[in-house]
């Protein structure tokens, strides 16, 4: 079963994970917000791979792309306008947005092409913000071990920080900044964590880069 069909079929399980792991979820939101706070106010942006709107809603993002119809249905209920399309082929004109957010790159078919598309739709000096599980840290390794028992992560591909840095540079981005959260294994995280700058300790890393 492909990724889109998986998300269509197991959207209830997807939502339940966030309810069962509120400290992990809120820690990720805090790390993302820390990068968003560095941007000017009242910017126009999108999330690519909105899912059910779990990240777009608290970050104030009102528009995005989500190919899973069942996921999109819940995102619309959360007040998010969903456009039909994929990360690798965005249905927007050149230089449309001030920022683009990704939080699901592990499920994309072609990350480099998705970054190129993000670069295309961003205005000059626009920002791309990417939240991802670092391949070299404990949570991604845990999901790798449980891959065959997971509806979602059996199709996932995790990336190292070095790989993401190279892809961003190759697709026309500069001034890459990082922060991180999720320190420790998932089952040990029982309170919301404050993000730290950089990477190398936390499993969830947020990269922010600027269009050249």
Account of the 3D structure:
This is Methyltransferase type 11. Pfam families: Methyltransf_11. GO terms for molecular function: S-adenosylmethionine-dependent methyltransferase activity. It comes from Arenibacter algicola. With about 210 residues, the chain is α/β, with parallel strands linked by helices. The chain has one domain: Vaccinia Virus protein VP39 (Rossmann fold, 3-Layer(aba) Sandwich), CATH 3.40.50.150. It is about 35% helix and about 20% strand. The protein has eight helices and eight strands. Strands 3-2-1-4-5-8-6-7 form an eight-stranded mixed sheet, with helices on both faces. Helix 5 links the parallel strand 2 and strand 3. The model has no long low-confidence stretch (mean pLDDT about 95).
Structural features:
single chain, 212 residues, alpha/beta, Rossmann fold, eight-stranded mixed β-sheet, 8 helices, 35% helix, 22% strand, SAM-dependent_MTases_sf
